[in-house]
Amino acid sequence: MGSRTSRLCIHLSLDDGDRLPPSQNPEEPMLLAVWVDDVSHHPPSAKLLSQSRQLAYAAKVWDESELLALEAEEETKKGWGNACDPALNRDFGQDVLAAVQRNNAQQASFIDEPMVYADPCKHPEHLRQNGEMIMKEESSVRGLLPLASLNSPLGGGEIIGPTTVGRKAIAPYMPWSAKTEHRLWWRGNAHSAFYYDKWDWRAGQRLRLSDFASGRRERMEAEMAGGMGMSAEERGSPVLLEREERVRREWREREVLRETYLNVSLISTQRAWSCGGHYAHVFFCNTEDGRPNATCPQDKACDAVMDAEYDFAPYADKAYELKHKFRLDIDGFGWTTRWREELSKNNVVIKITLYPEWWTPQAIPWYHYIPGSYTFNDLYDIMAFFTGTPEERAGEISEKRRVVLVERDKMAEEIAARGREFAMTRLRYEDMRVYMFLLLLEYRRAWSDDRKAATFKLD
User: Fold this and answer.
1) Where are the alpha helices (DSSP H) in 136-253?
2) Where do runs of H (alpha helix) occur along 215-295?
3) What does the alpha-carbon distance between residue 206 and residue 191 come to, in Å, rounded to a whole number?
4) Integer angstrom CA distances of residue 364 from 114, 277, 343
5) Which residue, 6, 43, 133, 177, has fewest beta-carbon neighbours within 10 Å?
6) Residue 184 in 3-state DSSP?
7) CB-CB contact of 262 with 183 (8 Å)
8) Would you place residue 263 in the very low, low, confident or very high pLDDT band (cuts 50, 70, 90)?
9) Which residues, including other chains, have CB under 8 Å from residue 217's CB and lie 6 or more apart?
10) What is the average pLDDT score of the chain?
11) CA separation for the pair 216, 233 (Å, rounded)
12) Cβ of 100: how many Cβ atoms within 10 Å?
């Protein structure tokens, strides 16, 4: 875990270090701390960051005593809600999440600006949906610290850099015409939050995805609703479908929608890793103070719960996997390292993430890829737009609609081609080196008292 992070900044910067402007004080060379973990360091303080930016804009620095006093005050606070000013609590996030789910029954919504959507201050529901934010509900806010990291949800204070993991992962090319599977494909492990009863680990994004794709979510909703005498709306899910040249909101049996649009599952072989000794013994079978729970079946506790609650599938044949035109990429412990490989497969990637990355400003949503919601409420609408209604997928289609869907398929093909080009020309090792070099130039300049002397000059 740590080795992949250390390669992030150190490996990429050493090759270009001699091109950096010389240190103004040779006895104090430039240092860059690197956080070597899959998730961010600590929840940030929006108040600290905001006041620091205000001082920077005014070309001023902190009074040290004032800074220390504010840091001491902020470090008594806990949770990712402190990334906002005023701070949000998780109960408010739960209230907003409930409202989001209710609103989905009334109107469709899509993600047009992914980094606006990823902001927990604008979307407090993320506090109850993202594994890292769930796990860090009791983590203390940290003071100001210049720190490089692979991972941090939007609003964090880390300096984000690229990782070399996955940089060589390029899939064999398969032309769009050879792809015959129209369902959305995803296979992955259950990473979201550690399996610890101290927090609501079942609310992590990948386990919720499994609930969504397997039907467990609707079964739980049915139980909560009493299960009997449910209306069509309660038994189904709203989806945007086109009828008589109009787009209409219709309710459909969720089983039909799942079978039509989804090929999504957790991977059985990865469960052994997630339920290994570290997880089962340290988290599943220990109390909050770290003492073993005598009533917990140590060796099989995690496996028993996962088998009872979640569906798992084996790894699939690579040739079959490549035949899917649509693929999902969703956060695990932070963002995934699949991104370049997923784009290179010449398919439309629906990316569900709350984590900005080094390439984020360059990738254009709905042009290189399609952004998706953390609630998954937009997945059926996206798939229906590109591939048609359940009846049309089953062959009941007019000639007029057939022509429309041919055009939609062409649109998807173009997104896939642009995504593959992005992977091949914007996510290369040399692109990472350029990014890190520019980052270190600015980092050196920001730390220098004489900004002009520290500014890069091309000889």
Assistant:
1) 205-214, 216-224, 232-235
2) 216-224, 232-235, 254-261, 268-274, 277
3) 7
4) 10, 42, 13
5) 177
6) strand
7) yes
8) very high
9) 208, 211
10) 84
11) 17
12) 18
Give the single-character DSSP code of 310.
-
Amino acid 360 reads T
**How far, in Å, CA of 152 to CA of 39, rounded?**
7
- What pTM was estimated for this model as a whole? 0.89
Beta-strand relationship, 246-253 and 262-267 = unpaired
Are 125 and 93 contacting, i.e. CB atoms less than 8 angstroms apart? yes
Q: How far is CA 180 from the centre of its chain?
A: 28
Two tokens at 5? 């992070």
Contact criterion met (CB below 8 Å) for 415 and 368: yes
C-alpha closest to that of 75 among 97, 101, 43, 52? 43
Tell me how far CA of residue 129 lies from CA of 126, 185, 360, in angstroms: 5, 22, 22
* Dist. CA 189–CA 207, nearest whole Å: 9
Angle, alpha carbons 37-132-10 (nearest 5°)? 20
Q: Report the C-alpha gap between 112 and 422 in whole angstroms.
A: 19
Q: Where are the chain's structural domains?
A: 164-427
Longest dimension (CA), the chain: 78
- Strands 246-253 and 236-243 turn out to be antiparallel
* Rounded Cα–Cα distance for residues 28 and 275 (Å): 46
231: amino acid identity, one letter: S
DSSP for 409-455 reads HHHHHHHHHHHHHHHHHHSSHHHHHHHHHHHHHHHHHHH-S-TTTTS
Q: Residues 399-452: pLDDT tens digits?
A: 999 999 999 999 999 999 999 999 999 999 999 989 988 898 888 888 877 778
